[in-house]
Amino acid sequence: MTVCRPSPSFHFAYVTNFDDDSVSAIDTRTKKVKATIKTGRGPFEIAVTPDRKYAYVVNKRDNTAQVIKRKTNTIIRTIRVGNAPSDVGTSRNFVYVTNSADNTVSVICPKKQRVVKTIRVGKRPVGVTVTPKKIGLRTLGFVSNIDSNTISIFDAKNNKVVDTIKAGVGPDQIAFAKNGKLAYVTTKNNVSVIGVRSRRILKRIRVGRSPVGVAITPDNKFAYVGNEGDNTVSVIKLISNKVIATIPVGIKPGIVAITQDSKYAYAANFGEDTVSVIRIRDNKVVKTIKVGNKASGIAIIPL
């Protein structure tokens, strides 16, 4: 998952279809699928580069990352990474891929379009996200290690691990508040709020069953959490860190993405091949979009 820059009120969404070996490209002005992009085997997650020119998709079944050129919706490069790549995150200088079967993160240099370093982390890394701003003098990357109940923190300049912290049981996906000072991490039936400077859990927020994805609105007012275990999305008000709404969506919602105008949340429903579009002002599902088989990941980019 990635943080995009402010934009006009229209956007473009990419959805990975795990069992179809494809990515659905949704025009979020019309909320219709505009194109279907063929990928490698088992596309699982996707992230957009900060310059908005490319999207990186990781293919869990053939251990690759692929580069999609946004203007043409075509794949321009395939890069070999580690075993069972599970998530992808981007920064200004690097692209990071968690390899859950290797306990590593592959570091890709976008200019060279190849892996330039491999970072050893905890057991079964799944999520990876980079702070939107420097913390002190450093930009930091957070990696959730689901089987060791930890987060590995690395310096995003030299790509070395600087700390390992407790995160709660089974940490999965990570999102940062706009100022980069707080990290929101999905764990077993909770979201852990972690102070990035203190590197401690400050609060645990009870959400739905088996939460996976978490996304924060660009206006920094709310966090949206996809709960795979009970087919809902929880809405957390950030000023109080309390759940203010629970929204029924499709089957097994996992990853959630937010439009840059903070008007809509898109939830990928892994169990029914759809994306639920939630209107943020009243937390109502306003449309369900049919995509490919097993919608596993989603990223939104401005046109």
TrEMBL record:
- UniProt entry keywords in alphabetical sequence: Signal
Domain called YNCE-like beta-propeller: residue spans: 135-215
InterPro entries for the chain:
Host-pathogen_enzymatic-act, N2O_reductase_N, WD40/YVTN_repeat-like_dom_sf, YNCE-like_beta-prop, YVTN_b-propeller_repeat
The answer to whether the entry has keyword Protein biosynthesis is no
Which NCBIfam families does its entry note?
A: beta_rpt_yvtn
Q: What is the protein name for this chain?
A: Beta-propeller fold lactonase family protein
The lineage's top-level taxon is Bacteria
Q: Which Pfam families match?
A: YNCE
Signal as a keyword? yes
Q: Where are the transmembrane segments?
A: none
